[in-house]
Amino acid sequence: MATRQQLEGKWNEVKGKLKEKWGTLTDDDLVRGEGNVEQLVGVIQRKTGKAKEEVEKFIDEIVGDSEGMYDRVATTAREYTDQATQALREGYDRTASQMSEGYRQAEQTIKRNPVESIAVAFGAGIVSGVLVGLMLRRA
């Protein structure tokens, strides 16, 4: 049979499904049994004429179904998290590989054309210095 904690934790869902199954139940009827499984079962029995075992079984199914749903949601969330983690790892590996390749190509270019590489670096340094000087002068 469902425990008090299970019933309290899922009270809105339980209440809705009980009213759906047995339309003769009112909010007042259900408030009388709120938080106490045995009282709730008694109220439903008196109002519907159903057997105690049938009422208990239905309440257990409601509580059990929602627990199963939470487990399925948690499992799905874990699967998506694992997929996202894998995609991030693959993206990182691709980026690291591309960066390494770019660095390797730059090294080869410098080795093949050392004079031109020095001239380019010198020119870039001068341009950067002029730009920084202009920006500092304006500030």
Give structural attributes.
6 helices; 139 residues; 88% helix; single chain; mainly alpha; Protein Yjbj, Chain: A
Short description:
This protein has six helices and no strands. The chain is mostly helical and 139 residues long. The chain has one domain (4-113): Orthogonal Bundle (Protein Yjbj, Chain: A).
Structural features, described:
By secondary structure, the protein is an all-alpha fold. It has one domain: Orthogonal Bundle (Protein Yjbj, Chain: A). The chain has 6 helices and no strands.
Write the layout of secondary structure elements.
Elements: H1 4-9, H2 11-21, H3 27-33, H4 37-48, H5 52-112, H6 114-138
What is the fold named in CATH at topology level? Answer: Protein Yjbj, Chain: A
How widely separated are the two ends?
A: 76 Å
What is the level-2 CATH architecture name? Answer: Orthogonal Bundle
Mean pLDDT: 85
What order do the helices and strands follow?
HHHHHH
Radius of gyration, CA atoms, in whole angstroms = 35 Å
Low-confidence stretches: none
The helical percent reads over 70%
- Broad CATH class: Mainly Alpha
Secondary structural class: mainly alpha
What's the tally of helices? 6
Overall shape: rod-shaped
CATH superfamily: YjbJ
Tally of discrete structural domains: 1
Portion in strands: under 5%
Q: What is the number of E strands?
A: 0
Largest sheet: none
